[in-house]
Amino acid sequence: MVFGLFTTAETFLGFVFYFIPYWDWLRMGFFIWLLLPNFNGAAILYNGVIKNLLSQNKELITKWINMTSNVASNVQADAMAQAKAAASDPTLLAKGVNLANQAQTTLAEATDDPQTKTE
User: Fold this and answer.
1) What secondary structure, in 3-state letters, does 2-20 show?
2) pTM (2 decimals)?
3) By the 8 A CB rule, do 31 and 3 touch?
4) Which of 17, 41, 74, 106 could potentially form a cystine with 33 if both were Cys, beta carbons 3.0 to 4.6 Å apart?
């Protein structure tokens, strides 16, 4: 989460961060502090900041998850219906067969392979 947050912030506010002297070294030091078990930085950050934010916004997070899940299931149902309609359309199937034959002919002409040439 922290790495994603840093990456997103640098994407949009990178010009601000690069005015900070030795920003790359500071960022690397911060990640080392997070990762090394000697420092216990990840646990400190989680218990001090992230855990509190998650517990305070639990209802909001649950609401957004449910809303996103509903939208995703609706989009999935629509996409499945469109794919089913397209898969059963005989004109699209015929176009696909023609394109496959054209591709095979083009490949045969490009490679001069008599086995792949269609008659």
Assistant:
1) HHHHHHHHHHHHHHHHCCC
2) 0.51
3) yes
4) 41
Of residues 34 and 93, more confidently modeled: 34
Q: Distance (Å, rounded) from C-alpha 14 to C-alpha 5? A: 12
Q: What is the pLDDT of residue 117?
A: 53
Please provide the average confidence, as pLDDT, over all residues in the chain. 87
Residues whose CB falls within 8 Å of the CB of residue 105, separated by 6 or more in sequence, listed in order: 117, 118
Distance CA(35)–CA(45), nearest Å, equals 11
Burial of 46 (C-beta count, 10 Å sphere; 0-12/13-18/19+): middle
Q: Summarize the confidence of residues 70-89 as an average pLDDT.
A: 86
- Long-range CB contact pairs, 34-38, < 8 A, 24+: 34/2
Residue 27: which of 43, 14, 38 has the closest Cα?
Answer: 14
In angstroms, the first-to-last Cα distance of the chain is 59
| pLDDT at residue 5, rounded to an integer | 87
Q: Give the Å distances, CA to CA, from 105 to 33, 72, 92, 113.
A: 60, 41, 20, 10
